[in-house]
Amino acid sequence: MITIADVAREAGVSVATVSRVLNKNGPVSPAAHEKVNLAITKLNYQPNVWGRRLRRKESRMLLILVPTISNPFYSSIVAGIEDEARRYRFGTMLCITNGDEGREREFIELLFDGQADGAVMLCVNKDDKDVKEIADKVPIVQCCEFCKDSDIAHVSIDNFAAAAQVVRYLHSLGHEKIGFVGSVNQFVSSEDRRRGYEAEMEKLGLPVRKEYMAYADRDYSFQSGIAAARELLQCPDRPTAIFCISDVLAMGAIRAAGELGLTVPGELSVVGFDDVEYATMMNPMLTTVSQPLYPLGKTSARMLIEQIEAGEGKGKIFLEHKLVIRDSTAQTGP
Amino acid sequence: MITIADVAREAGVSVATVSRVLNKNGPVSPAAHEKVNLAITKLNYQPNVWGRRLRRKESRMLLILVPTISNPFYSSIVAGIEDEARRYRFGTMLCITNGDEGREREFIELLFDGQADGAVMLCVNKDDKDVKEIADKVPIVQCCEFCKDSDIAHVSIDNFAAAAQVVRYLHSLGHEKIGFVGSVNQFVSSEDRRRGYEAEMEKLGLPVRKEYMAYADRDYSFQSGIAAARELLQCPDRPTAIFCISDVLAMGAIRAAGELGLTVPGELSVVGFDDVEYATMMNPMLTTVSQPLYPLGKTSARMLIEQIEAGEGKGKIFLEHKLVIRDSTAQTGP
DNA sequence: ATGAAAGCGCTAACAG
DNA sequence: CTGTTAGCGCTTTCAT
Predict the structure, then answer these.
(1) What is the tens place of the pLDDT at every residue in A52-74?
(2) Do B96 and A74 touch (CB under 8 A)?
(3) Could you tell me the pTM of the whole model?
């Protein structure tokens, strides 16, 4: 291993000068600068991170807490965070919690450890006490999901508005019996989409019927989507359209329809949410709400870095969504 | 921040003793042990990683190099690696290269930096010179993909045998005109699956026809899968079955068939590879080759850790695959 | 069984 | 503009 002292010796200067060149701070004469750079390349010197971090007490590392990576939904967000972090010369550590509280706690430790300077969290229940406490002590930004009634920085889309827009769209197609498939989890997104659905139904003078609303399990599994949709489709006066709060759930609804002999979109319109990659691989291709995933990630990272460097930046940012109309929705029959 | 000196003072012992308790090495009297533990909990002391790593010159960190996380294929492997790493008290850093060479290089730097003690690589071209050089200097294990003609440790399935098995299965269903959709990339898996296909065709006395083989782009995109399959299906004497080297490609083949008015599996059987989650969300559900992803990950991590700790462990391990028969394949018509 | 002390490689305050 | 030096928090001889 080759150290800063070796470089100093080789260049015929002191370690301080080398350090100054390395960090581009303090004043260095062009001549010294030259000599140091020569020595660095000659020796192929690489500063030791541990020494540096020990001394500086900063890691220049960002934590990214995701519940899972099996959902491609997260991949673009993560890419956005990583790209932005890199722009500001931060490294990233991707931590997959798999819904395991112990593991999540362990990752959070990294923050108090000083192993990371801050974290982007992608998986917060709508009122998670722990997170609120943590955010008081270390820089945190919540992405997509966030805690209500708290001033923790967050960036997401307007789920309420998006859901309302879906209902409006379906209504414009002639649908009046519109079902809803949500999830029993505690995410704001789930809640806001449900509220958006209900509010818009009322606004349009359509009844919000209990039997038109069903709930999948907490992690939006395909199977639970099938079950939830089946429930709606088997009720006496079945809905002619179903709005699902995730694409996987929507795919479940399409499967359920198929099992019951219903064609999509002929006899049933289905709308999803998220616009994951395979929404277009399906048959029919899914009408869904697209979130600006990459920008969501970039924005989170930027907010976090601001918070770390400036010690502030507790904003709330909402980005634009987009309703993408494809083949799983159609006019109601005459 | 609370340091080891604080603990020593609180416990009325020297820092050396505290360190001994922390690391469970050297001899410590029960009394001292007790006092130290008390002080640690009282002060809520957490050893500083930078100081420790600087001193020990080891990070107890494993690098995981994946090309992308948008492909759910990797998520189980990563989970396997992380779980096993954790068992041996190693942390992990997930690095997403996105096929960017510069980024890959940057991550590799972390190894020479000492920021990680070794790496599991999930994305190696079949003869990547760089990787061979790197593996000479730092512990590396290749998972799924690996360099041919090199003794770098790796774990994967027998792609050749799996492909042969698919062809045999299709043949047992009565198919003789069996097409192949591969990829132009440089992965051993792609090559071995193609070789397995060709070898088994010959073994069964079936002609290996150029016009029955098509290639998707390097990252198995859905669109390129459609294009490749369309090519096969439009040739004069079209195949009655197609073996695709990935599930996404198989989904593309099904789409292509649909566009040409061919039913699956009625008029065309399709087999995929990998058994990704959404292979069962499709209609029809995909017949495919399932890889033991989680065990693949666990095994890689174990091999890597052995290599790090023992300084050896350059084995080659092959795990069992499984042909999963679902609804996209059927007997040929009478 | 315990403690004193010497660094690990680096940065930054200070003195020149 | 440059060099000397004192740590950052920890582990690990080497004495005792």
Answers:
(1) 999 999 899 999 999 988 888 89
(2) no
(3) 0.90
